[in-house]
Structures
1.
Amino acid sequence: MHMTISVAVSGASGYVGGEVLRVFSEHPDVEFGALTAHSSAGDLVGVHQPHLRSLADRTIVETSAETLAGHDVVVLALPHGASGEIAAQLPPETLVIDCGADHRLASAEAWAEYYGGEHAGTWPYGMPELITPGGHQRDNLPGSRRIAVPGCNVTAVTLALQPGVAAGVVDPTDIVAVLANGYSGAGKKLATHLLASEGLGAASPYGVGGVHRHIPEIVQNLTSAGGEDVTISFTPTLVPMARGILATVTAPLASGADAAQVRAAWEAAYENEPFVHLLPEGQWPTTAATLGANTCLVQVAVDQKAGRVVVISAIDNLVKGTAGAALQSMNLALGVEETTGLQTLGVAP
Ligand SMILES: NC(=O)c1ccc[n+]([C@@H]2O[C@H](COP(=O)([O-])OP(=O)(O)OC[C@H]3O[C@@H](n4cnc5c(N)ncnc54)[C@H](OP(=O)(O)O)[C@@H]3O)[C@@H](O)[C@H]2O)c1
């Protein structure tokens, strides 16, 4: 049976909003309703998203409870702190999908420590592949009318390490993650350190020393996967590419575990996942192989001399890291086949 799902997108002038428009356009049942933003209200979509030709003549309108009313689904792609207020004004029967951080954390204390201000509350978490005590997070999404889409770095690190945590073959108390990040992860805002003259030709670490806002969300996820006393040193690095995250995540090999058990843990975790792929041994993920696709590519090795498990994951931060996860979660919430409209074919070279 064909049904129409009316979708409003708030933040339609931004990077995530643009990618939500691109990715959701592939869904056979989706029809876009209001496209809203803030300072760009009144502009045509084509001014801000010239790559989205089929939507170029649509006008962006102001974001309000009125403009977002009357849709089956509202996707919020707003700066953190902005979505809590608008979401609170939307009716409970509307499926609201927040791509920002406002509703991801279960702990109000963690919110206050890393983001500051009042905690907007906790929504069902939009990472279907997350290992939970009873199964997977996809089991919790059918029927949901509020979904918090994960952070992009969080997706890369969680999907990299969770099989080992769940299987008990890594020690989660000493995780180290170093990431190479494309610039779109920072959004469209103007900032000196995001200028081409600063970034081209440079690799620039940021959020160093345990202060990055994605840390508590990673801890939350790996705890969900079965980790106790999860501790992570997390360092992202801007590199000169527009999109993509390459995460290198290491943790001590658990005592008694061996390389065969490590491989088996990752194989078992992802053999049936449509969008998370453990590569054949010896083949390493690259960001280029994920561009435009809702895929996370993973490889795992054991560094015997260091006594550590080394996992590499790659995602497109705007697809598996945001808009693709949003669509995957929408499908589950609405009882549509999880993979509908989602692309595993990337753009290369
Ligand atoms: N970029 C990523 O890779 C990524 C990944 C995962 C999650 N996220 C999250 O997704 C959200 C959007 O990120 P982004 O990268 O798309 O940022 P962005 O490119 O800066 O876009 C921000 C959007 O929000 C709108 N906006 C700003 N203030 C607003 C307000 N007070 N009310 C209504 N609309 C407002 C802007 O509209 P105007 O342009 O009209 O002012 C713009 O459309 C953030 O919470 C971010 O943390 C981003």
2.
Amino acid sequence: MTQTHDMIVRRQFGEQAAAYVESSVHAGGEDLDWIEQVAARARPAHALDLGTGGGHVAYRLARQAGRVTASDLAGEMVAAVLATAEGKGLANVAGEIAPAEALPFADAAFDLLACRFSAHHWRDFEAGLREARRVLASGAPALFVDVVAPERPSLDMHLQAVELLRDPSHVRDYRVSEWIAALGRAGFEIRDLRSLRLRMDFPSWTARMRTSELHVAAIRSLQSLASADVAGHFALEADGSFTIDTVAIEAI
Ligand SMILES: C[S@@+](CC[C@H](N)C(=O)[O-])C[C@H]1O[C@@H](n2cnc3c(N)ncnc32)[C@H](O)[C@@H]1O
């Protein structure tokens, strides 16, 4: 059967909601601390966690905001986040099942928006950024965190290839230069940009997405053929674990 991209995303993530709630890569990190610090400064009345996944941003925002809406394309993710929020005693978290590219919210409905490790899955990155801009009040902070591709094409290509083999819902890890340009086109002004690095543990990275043995073997093959440049940049390890670049951007 022919599937739309959004159906592939829902299948990939919907079946793995619990794994994303429990994922230690997603549950912690200095980027999450940074998001909470910005929220503590802004004290938003209503914050949006766009592409909430396991809800780790929403739980942090809930401590600093009047209320939080956790939205995601996958209904199972939203259900898992609401159940987890209730278990944590966070009564100010609501859920919404919606594509980033067509959000069911009024213009300027939120006074803080955070979006972490989601945009690289979107069918239409630019439409999602325009929607983020539309639903955010003027002058309010938007925080974007994502995996980024290196600017050099050989490194960029290696990253996209292993990402797509691991997860068919992968669209593109954008370069920092692409993020800056796209945010500008969507009407955002960048206030802060931080570059970080994140180690991906190969066994849990592939298990979380139920990557087939065939695709795991293909990734390992690509890694074994990688140039010294590629192996060095991604700090490739013997078991396939590697380190990626991420970016944390505050825009208004
Ligand atoms: C890696 S998880 C997000 C992790 C989470 N934000 C965190 O910080 O732990 C990516 C999420 O983006 C969602 N997603 C992918 N494409 C989307 C889209 N077009 N609109 C809304 N959500 C989307 C997926 O369903 C998935 O739950």
